[in-house]
Amino acid sequence: MLNKIVGLILLVLIFQGCKPKEDHVPTDKEINDAYTYMLGRYIVLRQENNDINVEKVGYNKIKYNPLGSAQFVNPNMDVAYLECWLTVDSSHAVILNVPEVKDRYYTAQLLDGWGEVITNVNERNYPDHPFGKFALVIKGTNPPNIGDAVKIELPSAKAKMLARVELKGSPQEAVKLQQAFTLNVPEGIKIDPPVKVPEFTNAKLIGAAIFDKPDAILNSYPDPMPEAARYQALTKKVAAYMHTGDSAVAHVEEIVQQQAIPAFMEGAKGFGTQKGGWSVSYVAGKFGNDIMARDIINYGGLWANVISEAIYFVGLTDSGKQLLNGSNIYEIRFPKGEWPDSAVNAFWSVTLYSVPDYHVVDNSLKRYSINNVSGLKPNPDGSKSIWLGSTTPRQRWGQLAAHTCRERFRAHVQNVCIQTGSTRWKMVSGANTKKINKKKCSGVYNTKIPFLSINQIASSHLFIPCYG
To answer: pTM surpassing 0.85?
Structure first.
């Protein structure tokens, strides 16, 4: 009898040991939060893996993108681009050589492994040393090859650099300046390969596999987010729960597929501050604790700059509050006297992208953006219009395929009005809407962007999404 009792007790203990404790089972919200937190890092790692392992661009090798190149994500057609994956170690600095750039916008933007901006090298942030040599080093180290260069500390061994030089009507000069950005790379730098992640696309995001190796992912790059420790603890809790058995894995996958991903996709259609069909985020590049904003911006505009350099107005719906669709015809109208030229110190542009891949929309005119040097002529009433559609009454934009797309108005700014959202920027609809073609157009996309209180903008761009 005693043996039976002891055996029963042991059986109960074994059973209880296999069953997760109640406090070790994450709630749905914890799973959602952990997934949202990790997605931002996975998007950056996906890009690094693609660039290094597929495109074979290498580390510490500048890629000078040709003018007009539209074969990469979220291109800016108004600048000469260059980009590079940088890597250093505790004993070696990489020297960035920045040319002297006069009378046109430029910046060398450095970003970390979560898509957060480390710094922008330009005359605004380094007024005493706007060009010349800059030594990129790991924070807290002092490699011997710094010399007289200005030291810039990186949070870890790697960083992404995107540098831009405004075309400003003289693209040949912009290309000369683009090519003058160079690196001095010493021999012997220890380079770690990117952490491998499962393949996923914007149309089909990664599922519960995002929790397969939390330590490797989280240890691969420090996160500046103030509440990073809390989110990382949640991530490890979900991962530990999944290790308890197949049912736990299935449960997490269900929550991710039915809750986390749909919530993210819904958020991506309209986030931040929304006004009259437009959306704008004021946390790009420095996200604070906003894990959803970081995900959405990495997803749709990876390597977005901070609002002191760039603000991105995203067009979402037309005057009838319908998602934009490439089969319709739209008009963006700027009333007389309210053209953005007077509000920018450098440039503004309107660019159309497809979603979910965020490449420019191809068209027979090979016209991907309209900007301050496009030379648009005013309408009879003094207003100016930009048209979008598969066919347009005035070929001032180009032709669109009938598929999902977005358009972006980018704004590089220094004025506090636009940075805090206190401008009178809005989308005009209703009374100002007029029919263009009853058979082809369900509505006209009108916008009014007065910028009446803004006079310190460096450049701006506009982004409009269309859904097919």
So the answer is: no
